[in-house]
Amino acid sequence: MTTSNVDALFKPFRLKSLTLKNRIVMAPMTRSFAPDGVPGDNNAAYYQRRAEGEVGLILSEGTVINRPTSRNEPNVPFFHGEQALAGWKKIIDDVHAAGGKMGPQLWHTGSVASFMTDWVPDAPVESPSGLIAPDQPRGNVMSDESIADTIAAFAQAAADAKRLGFDVAEIHGAHGYLVDQFFWSATNLRTDVYGGPTLKQRSRFAAEVVKAMREAVGPDFPLILRISQWKQQDFTVRLAPTPEEMSDWLVPLVEAGVDILHCSQRRFWEPEFPEIDGESGLNFAGWAKKLTGAATISVGSVGLSGDFMAAFTGEASQPASLDNLIERLDRNEFDLIAVGRALLSDPDWVTKVRTCNVDALQGFTAAALAELV
């Protein structure tokens, strides 16, 4: 592989109370190494190694809010309860000691079943309309009370993140999980204020989550929202097929209190609306920034061939050029770039890129998913 001047990746970034030494974010990646929901010393060491390896901002694996069926695997960490929060306190203290910045990704899996395990929670799962995918029932339709309790649980988790000393908090609103199930017309058939024929109407739940979190953390603590067009239930889904619909979707969420939109694509270099003349090169994060004025994070197969979902079928990836990424950062298409698999298997990936030691960059195999490196 060849890589051009990497200076664009190593410019500082500032937003509200957050100051980062570079533009590289560790993407949130489910690891499931927290027995009984409690992160331990191995989790702390895993994140600390990335801080030592010069990652600008670390986003944790999905960590679930205080709802009875918020997770779909047995070893996903909690972000509630005395023991789990004590584990997260050690993690953020160790990351800070290594010079890093970090935020938890706050998660509710909705009605989605894990494709990695047959485990199911003790109670029925919940979602907007009791669906896991179009015309596929699973679990309960959320009541007004359960919606209110879920919003309150997100707010409490955000307050705990700030109290513990984290630098940001991210809401997982992508990939077909609970928040995204409200966005998606195929899984949100509600006829109350949380449903409706338009994406803007179906975004009300997410907006209320954001508003509650903003009230819990105050004006200066940055909030990130991860979003995606695609769903794990269907890679071809597009919530917003036009810029106008994307604006209707995202502008109200930024107005509600989102500071950074984390725009998940399977491949970051693919144009979001290739049919539009003059803007055909902008990816999802580029369009989100253009339409809302918010800062954005791009993500999707950075530094490696192939995409993340293919890893679960055993597909390996090799190091890939960063030239396209650097060109996009140079023209301010987006503000930050999230790196997933490359950092999962190599804690020193950022240092190697900064020093242009490209020959030392490693490929990725599915075996890396089985251990905390």
From TrEMBL:
Descriptive protein name: NADH:flavin oxidoreductase
Keyword Hydrolase: no
Keywords: Flavoprotein, FMN, NADP, Oxidoreductase
InterPro entries: Aldolase_TIM, OxRdtase_FMN_N, YqjM-like
The protein's required cofactors: FMN
Residue span, NADH:flavin oxidoreductase/NADH oxidase N-terminal domain: 9-354
GO molecular function: FMN binding; NADP binding; NADPH dehydrogenase activity
Key word Phosphoprotein present: no
